[in-house]
Amino acid sequence: MTTKAKAKKSTNTIRTGILGASGYTGAELIRLLLHHPSVDIRVMTADRSAGKPIDAVFPHLGGRGLPNLVSLDDARYDDIDLVYCCLPHGTTQEVVAKLPKHLKVIDLSADFRLFDLGDYETWYGHAHRAPALQAGAVYGLTELAREAVRRARLVANPGCYPTSALLPLVPLLEAGQVDTDTIIVDSKSGVSGAGRAAKEASLFAEVSEGIHAYGVAWHRHMPEIEQELARAAGRKLTINFTPHLMPMNRGILSTIYVRTAKGADANALRKTLAARFADEAFVRVVPEGVAPATRHVRGSNHCLIGVFQDRLPGRAIIVSVIDNLVKGASGQAIQNMNVVYGLPETTGLEQEALFP
Amino acid sequence: MTTKAKAKKSTNTIRTGILGASGYTGAELIRLLLHHPSVDIRVMTADRSAGKPIDAVFPHLGGRGLPNLVSLDDARYDDIDLVYCCLPHGTTQEVVAKLPKHLKVIDLSADFRLFDLGDYETWYGHAHRAPALQAGAVYGLTELAREAVRRARLVANPGCYPTSALLPLVPLLEAGQVDTDTIIVDSKSGVSGAGRAAKEASLFAEVSEGIHAYGVAWHRHMPEIEQELARAAGRKLTINFTPHLMPMNRGILSTIYVRTAKGADANALRKTLAARFADEAFVRVVPEGVAPATRHVRGSNHCLIGVFQDRLPGRAIIVSVIDNLVKGASGQAIQNMNVVYGLPETTGLEQEALFP
Amino acid sequence: MTTKAKAKKSTNTIRTGILGASGYTGAELIRLLLHHPSVDIRVMTADRSAGKPIDAVFPHLGGRGLPNLVSLDDARYDDIDLVYCCLPHGTTQEVVAKLPKHLKVIDLSADFRLFDLGDYETWYGHAHRAPALQAGAVYGLTELAREAVRRARLVANPGCYPTSALLPLVPLLEAGQVDTDTIIVDSKSGVSGAGRAAKEASLFAEVSEGIHAYGVAWHRHMPEIEQELARAAGRKLTINFTPHLMPMNRGILSTIYVRTAKGADANALRKTLAARFADEAFVRVVPEGVAPATRHVRGSNHCLIGVFQDRLPGRAIIVSVIDNLVKGASGQAIQNMNVVYGLPETTGLEQEALFP
Amino acid sequence: MTTKAKAKKSTNTIRTGILGASGYTGAELIRLLLHHPSVDIRVMTADRSAGKPIDAVFPHLGGRGLPNLVSLDDARYDDIDLVYCCLPHGTTQEVVAKLPKHLKVIDLSADFRLFDLGDYETWYGHAHRAPALQAGAVYGLTELAREAVRRARLVANPGCYPTSALLPLVPLLEAGQVDTDTIIVDSKSGVSGAGRAAKEASLFAEVSEGIHAYGVAWHRHMPEIEQELARAAGRKLTINFTPHLMPMNRGILSTIYVRTAKGADANALRKTLAARFADEAFVRVVPEGVAPATRHVRGSNHCLIGVFQDRLPGRAIIVSVIDNLVKGASGQAIQNMNVVYGLPETTGLEQEALFP
Prior knowledge:
Chain A is of the alpha/beta class. Chain A has helices at residues 24-33, 92-97, 117-124, 131-136, 142-150, 160-174, 204-207, 221-233, 266-276, 326-340, and strands at 14-19, 39-45, 69-70, 82-85, 104-107, 138-139, 154-156, 184-189, 212-213, 240-245, 252-259, 283-285, 303-309, 315-322.
C-alpha cells in the first residue's frame, strides 16, 4: 500500500515537522504532504500517543513510511527546516517561543492572528505570552498577503471562518464598493472545525439531523475578521458574524449581506472580485446566477465566490465556500509554505473536489 | 400492530379526507391524525397508487385500519366534513374549485396564499384560476389569525419558511420595534421541504455532506412573507430572504437580522415576543443567551424563538426554529382544524420533540 | 409550551423516579412518560447537573413542570413507587442494592441481565456485587416473559441488540425450526446506542459517512443473547454476533442467517412468527418480499420482522428492526412497567414512527 | 482555477473518451484522469446535456479545459485510443458493438460481466445482444486477472459489491481454505452506488437516518460473484449475498462469514491473503484485531481486509472495505487502463483517503 512518495522527492527537500499531528488539521497536512514532491515529514508530535505509529491514531495513513509519533518534549529539530503547529489555542505561543530560530513556523492556531495585544487579551482572557513574536508574525491569507508571507519566519495561518469572509470582502472594501458599517456574515460550518477533542457538543447524536447558531455576537473569529477588514478599509469597523453548526464533516459556506456603495451593484462587485482573482489558482468567481456549494470544494484548496443582486435596493448578497480543513486550514498552510520556499503555489494541492 | 385508534374517537368525529396522501405532508397528517381523538380519516387520494393500501407507499403506516388509496376522480365526499389538500402548487386551485361546498378545506399548497392576484401571476407565471375562492381564503398562521381561521371555509396553510419568519417578525412590526426596510432572513432548511418527487437535486448523494443557497433573491415564499409583514407594518415592504438546503430530514432555522427602532434593543424585542406568545402552547421565547436548535422541535408543532443583541449598534439577531413538516405544514394544518371546530388547539399535537 | 400533561393523570398515579436522567435513555423515558396518563415523574438524578432544571441538559424538555435534577445521593424515595435505572454498567448493581425495598425497579443497564455469575465475571471483569438481587431479577423481553415481569420487583430490561435478535429467534428455537449451532447475527446500529458520554469514537466526524464493525467476536451483548437462546433451545449454544456502527441516530437492523431444520423453510418460519406475535401490539411480521427498514420504527416501540428464503439450500434470512432507544431501551421499559401495574401494554407508547 | 493539467501530459498520451460522463462514475473518472500524466480526455458524452460544458452537470469540474459534452451519436473516435463506458446496463452492449475496432474499451456497466449467456438472460431478462464481444471480454478484477487484462480489447470492469467480496474470497478458495457451500456475504453500501438517476428510493429523505436490506436473495451482483468464485474453486457454487443501503455517499463494507476447511483458522486465512497481496499497491491485509472502516478508503483506490476468528468453532469472519466509486468502479477502471498500456498501476491513483 506504499505509494513510494519518497521516491518522488526532489533534492531540495523541505524537511518538515508537524506539532500536534493527531488532530484533524494534522491528518489533513499529512494527507496532502505525502504527495508534495518537495516535502519530507520527519517529525510528528502527539503527546498522548507518543511512541505509537501514525496508524494508531489514523489507520488510513499507515504504511507510508512516516516516522512514529513523539511527545512535544522529545521532538528534535536539528535537521528540520519548517514546522506546522497544530496545537491548541493558548498553549501554542509558548511552544513557538521556545522553538529554535532556524525554523520557519506556520501556525494553524489562533495564537498569532491578533496584532492588537489588547484585543488578544479581551477575546482570550489572558495577556499574550510572546508579544515579540507576535510583532513579527504575518497573517497568511495567501492571496492577500503573498509578499509578506514570502519574507515571514512565522506565518499565522488564518482561521476557517475568516478565510471564507475575507477573500470576498477585502477586495471590495479596498475598492470602496461596500459600506463598512453594516456587514453581516452568516456562516454555516461542518463539524470537523470543532476539532477532534471528545466533547458532548460534537457527538454524532448531538449534531446530526439539525442545525443551530452558536457564539452569537461573541465568537473569537470575529476580531480576526474585523482586524483584516479594517486594514482593507483603512479604518476600524464592526461586523455581524453569526456562525452555525450543521451536520457535515467538511465545509464552510458564508452568506454575506452588504450595502453597496453609491454606483456599485452586484455586477460591479462581481467584476471587482473576478479581476482581483483572475490569476489565482484557488479562488474562482462563479458566473451570475450560479450558487456555490460546499460540495464543489470538498477536499480541495479552492474558494468559490458568487455575487447576487439583493431585492432590497442598494444591497448585494455574496456567497463563498471553502473546505474548512483545506483552504480554511491545512491546504492554505501548505500554500503558504510554497510561497515561503518559492515553489509554484499549487504544488501538492492539485486535487479536485471529491463529489459526491 | 393496530393501536385501536378508532376506539378512542368521540361521537363528534370530524370525517376527514386527505387529497395527495402519498407525499411527506400527507404522511405527516396521517401520523398525527391517527391519534387525534376527534378525527376519522375516510378518504385518501394518490393517483399513481390508486387502489393500493397505504403501506404500499408508507410501510410504517400499515395495519391501522386506514382506507385504501383512491384516485382524485374517484374520491367521494358525501360523508366527509373536511379535506386537507396536499396537492402540487398550481393544480390545487382547480381541484378546490370543484369540491362540494359543504366541505371545509385546509390547503397546504401555495395556491391560496397570495391575495394580490397580480403578485400570484408574477411569481407563478399564470393567472389565478379560482379568484373568487382566493378572496374568501384565510391565511392560516394560527397564532396570528385565530379569529379569521375560526370562521373560514378555506384555510391557506402557511409555507414552512414564512411560518418561521412571520411568527417572530409580525409582532415586532406591529409593535413598531423593527425597521421595515432592512429585514434579512437567512433560512436553512432540511430536505423534506422539497417534497417526495424524484428529482436529481434531492438525491442523497447530491444533498448530504454539504450546503448551498438556492433561489437567491427569487423564491416563491418571498412574496408570501412580504404580504403578511406588510399587513403587520401597515405598508408595503421588501425583504431579503435567502434559503439554503442542508442535509437533514426535517427542520428550518431562520436567522433574522433587523435594525431596531429607536429605543428598542434585543431585550425589548424579546419582551414583546414573550408577552405576545405567553399564552400560546406552541410558541416559546427562549431565555437570553439560549440558541434554539431545530433538534429541539423535531417532530413537534413547536416554534422556538431566541433574540440576541448584535454587536452592530442598533441591530438585533432573531433565531427561530420549527419542524417544517409539523408547524411548517401538517401540524399547523391540524392546529387550524382544531380552531375551526372549536377543539383545544393542542389536540393531537401533544408529542414532544424526538431527540436524538 | 406546557402541555398540561399532569391534568390528564388518573388518580392511580405511578410515582416514578429516573436515575441517570441526563443520558439518551433518560431523555427518551421523559419524552414518553410525559404523556403517559398514569405516570408522574417526581425524581430525576444527574450527578454532574444536580440542582439544574432539565432544560439545562435537554432544552426540548423544558417547560413541562418537571422537577429539577438532583444528585443520586440526594434522591428521596418515600413517595416513589418505581424507579428506572439508566446508570452506567458496573455501578448500577450497587445502587440498586441500596434502594428501599418498597420500590419496583426497572434497570436499563446490563448489570442484571446475566444469570450465570461466572458469565458475568468473564464478560465484565469483576465478580457481581449483588448476587442475591440477580437471583430474583427477571429478564424483561416483554413479549417473551410477560408473566414473570408481572410478578417481578427487579426487571432487567434487555439490551438493544439482544431485543432485535431474540424476538425472532426465540420462537423459532422453541419450535425447533432452526439449527442451534450455526446462527449468525449481523447487526447494524445507530450511534445513540453508544450513549451520551463524550468519546472520540462517537464524534460526528468519526462516525458520519462510513461504517465499521466493532467488538467482532467479543461484544457484551453476545452472552446475553446466548443465555436467552439457550433457554429457548433447552441447551447451551454459541452464536456469531457481529455489530456494526453506522451514521444514524436511532435504529438497529439485524440480519440473521440460519440453517433451517428438516422440513422447515422460510414460509414455515414466517408462519411460526406470525402466529406467535399475532396478538402483540408491538411486533409485526411483514409479508413475504417486504424488507423492514429502521425508518419504519423510528421513535416507535415496534419491531418489524421479515423472513426470506435463502438461495443457499436449507437456509433462511431473517431481518428485524427496532428503534434502539424505544423497543431497545426506554419504550420496552415502559411496556414492562405497564405489565407490572396491569395497565394496557400500549399505554403511553401509541406514537407512530417518525418518517421521514 | 485551471490547474493546467495538460501541461504535464507526456508525449505518449492516451487519448480517451468517456461515454456517459454525467453520472457519478463519469465524474469520478474525470476527477482522477485530470491528474493522470498520460491521459487526455477528448470526448465526453451525455445525451441530455449535449452541447453543454461539463460544469453544467458538475460545477466542481469546470475550468479545467475539458471538451463540451456531446450526444453519443455525435461522438467521433478517429483520434481516440480508449473509451470508458459508463452507460446503463442493457444498452451498453449495443453501443460497444458499434464502436470502431481500433478502440480499447473499459466497460463499467454489468453488460459484459457474465460469461454464461444463459445466466445473463436469467438475470437481465433478455438474450445478450453482443455474444461475440462477450466471448472476448475479460473480467477485470485487476489483482486477480492482470495478465488477461493486459491483452484485452474489452475489459468488463467488476461491480462494486463483487470487488469487495472477490478480493478476499478468491485467494482463499484457490487455497482450499474455505468451504464453498456456506459462504455468506452481508454487504453495506453507500447511496452513490445507486447512480445519479432521479429515483424516489434514492432521495435524501428516504435514505438518511436509516438502513434496510434490498434485493434479498435476488441481486444481479450475485451471479457475478458466483461466477468468479466458481472459477477459483473449480466448481459451481451458490452463495448468500445480502446487500443493505445505508446513509453515506461512498463506501462498501462486506462482512463475510465462512466455514474454514480442516486445519485452517483465521490466522491461516490472514496469512494466505497477506502473502497473496504482499506486492499489491492497493490491497492491504490489516493486522489481527484491526477492523477496517470505509472511512479509511474514502476517495482512494484501496481495499482493506481484516480476518477474525469466529466464536463459532470452525468459522471465520472476513471484513473488506472499498470506495464503491473508486476501487469499485472508476479507480479500478483506470488501474485496468494502466495495465493495458503498461504503465505503473498506481499512476493517477496515488490519492490518500479523505478523512474526515
